[in-house]
Amino acid sequence: MCRELRALRQSISDYAGRFDVHALVPSQAGEVVRECSRIEASIAAIKALAAAKSAEGTAWKHAGYRSPADQLAQETGMSPGRAKRALETGRRMAEQPEVAAAALAGDLSPEQADAVSDGAAANPDKAKELVDKAKKMSMPELNEEVARTKAAVTDLEARRRHLHENRSFRHYTDQEGAGHAHLFGNPEHNITVWEAIDPIRRHLVLRRRDSDHPRERFEAIDHDALMILASAATGKPAELSITDLLGLGLFPELDLSTLGNRTPKATHATPGELNPPNAHAPTTIAPRLQPDLLSGLAGDNVPALADATPCPADLPPFLEADPDPPPTQPGSSKLRRKLAGRPVKLVIRVDYDVLLRGYPLEGELCDIPGYGPIAVSLIEDLMATGNVFIAVAFMKALEVKSVYHHGRRPNAYQKTALELIYPECAVKGCNVRYGLQYDHREDWVKTHYTVLDLLDGLCQHHHKLKTHKGWALVEGRGKRDFVPPDDPRHPRNKASRSESNPPPIPAGSKPAPGPAVNSGGP
Questions:
Q1: Which entry of 35, 79, 160, 501 is 20 to 30 Å from 198 by CA?
Q2: DSSP of 458-484, one letter per residue?
Q3: Taking the mean position of all CA atoms in its chain, how far away is CA 313?
């Protein structure tokens, strides 16, 4: 066996030595990539299975390694984390013939094999189903499917306690000198952080736009928002002062009278940074409750939304209505809110019976779209905190009852329902979750109504392809293929074929009477 592998390696080395990328045309290069990917997947599966078998011995101890993973990392040039995952995947696949066969055949990439074997280890009956889905899904979609598979046979409350016990905040500097930070724990921890960062981020977007600041990525602005929050807590100069943050509704328990006539510290001590505008006067933002967004969307006699979703009532100074400019002018409140982006909202789906029972049964909903299954206690805790980001939709099934209205854009009911149906772009393989645009399958100028069943969530890239290049989603709902105009599955082509080829009349049946034709007789 080893002799065959050495001969195979020599053949590949010989081919690589003759390989000339400049002799390829783009279509040939794509084919080379696909073939190499399958070869790489097969070799990775062989390596993982062999490494797991090697770890059963004691050679790594005699060679002075800390563990089998340490030996694999040193001998193959892999990182310790990847080596450990490869060993775990090999051990699982050794007990999973269906997964191992697909991986050895090159049908599963190393990442897909790792995910599928993880799900099959939790529920062996789902092995074949996961293998089939892995061939059609993107990695994020496959990870969500594996999470649902594991959740069906996992105590979610125990998993939540495990995550809490292993919570961590890691910060380190990489080889290039860049600082990194990684927060690990239950999802409510991330929500708490976002609740503080989101209003600062939205304020910075508008503030910097008004100051002719170069346009920046939202990730960069999020970083600045976190630094501003930390600077305010430690009393260091920053782009926003503590007074600005109070105006945004942060530190709600802080007694404003303690500030007295205190003069805020000067900001922007560093040359080249923005000069801050006049600080907003401290404003107390009292919370209010948003009306039910899903009223009437769920099943009969089921509450549509958790006892209202808390949200900021009064807009902070930078988003207050402008009295002078009309809605179409650049300075209008409507345009400014659009440029700043919508506040982040976390939508949780749960069947009402699940919340009453305290745990889900197979086939019942209790999850965060785009995240995966969650424990019922998490929903109860989030609802109790009155978090501004939470919208809990009680549902009996995945389907949401269709509603429509005559406006061009989805109304509040439909927006929340669309967030449930499309947590990410509807195009299969696309996992963009931010900045989705809800598109009409039939142009609104033709129909003059907006129906939930005829709306799709598309990212900006795919929405441009549909609008300007004629691409379209195939018929259906949820994630599906996105095809060019000449594809037979394109809805326009399918409709034209149906009109030109009416269904045949079954034998023995009479054709439907058509319109009367005047033959010219009396």
A1: 160
A2: E-HHHHHHHHHH--EEPSSSSSB-EE-
A3: 28
Q: Residue holding tokens 């039910």?
A: 292
Cα-to-chain-centroid distance, residue 213: 29
Query: How far is the C-alpha of 148 from the C-alpha of 269, rounded, in Å?
Result: 51
Contacts for 153 with CB less than 8 Å, ≥ 6 apart: 122, 123
- Inter-axis angle of helices 110-122 and 80-93, nearest 10: 50
Instruction: Give 3-state DSSP helix, strand, coil % of the chain, rounded to 5.
Output: 45, 10, 40
Bridge partners (DSSP) of residue 366 are: 350
- For residue 394, the cross-strand partners are 350
- In this prediction, residues 123-141 reach a mean pLDDT of 91
Indicate the pairing of strand 372-373 with strand 366-368. Answer: antiparallel
pLDDT digits (tens, 9 = 90+) for 483-516: 999 999 998 886 666 555 555 554 444 444 444 4
CB burial of residue 334 (10 Å; 0-12, 13-18, 19+): middle
Question: Partners of 390 in the beta sheet?
Answer: 346
Q: Which residues of 257-280 are buried (b: 16+ CB within 10 A; e: fewer)?
A: eeeeeeeeeebeeeeeeeebeebb
Alpha-carbon gap, residue 393 to 110, rounded angstroms? 37
Q: Rounded to an integer, what distance in angstroms lies between the CA atom of residue 461 and that of residue 435?
A: 10
Sign of CA dihedral 218, 220, 221, 227: positive
Convert the pLDDT of each residue in 269-321 to its tens digit: 333 343 343 333 333 333 322 333 233 333 333 333 333 333 333 333 333 33
**Do 434 and 449 meet the contact criterion of CB atoms below 8 Å apart?**
no
Tell me which H or E stretch contains 287.
strand 287-290
Q: Are strands 372-373 and 346-351 parallel, antiparallel or unpaired?
A: unpaired
Query: Residue 310 in contact with residue 387, Cβ under 8 Å?
Result: yes
Q: Indicate the pTM of the whole model.
A: 0.62
Q: Which of 401, 397, 384 is nearest to 295 (CA)?
A: 401
Alpha helix (H) residue ranges in 235-302:
242-247
Map tokens 């409140």 to a residue: 333
Nearest Cα to Cα of residue 198 among 342, 31, 2: 342
Classify residue 492 by burial, with Cβ atoms within 10 Å: 0-12, 13-18, 19+.
exposed
Residue 459, number of CB atoms within 10 A of its CB: 20
Contact present, 309 and 293 (Cβ < 8 Å): yes
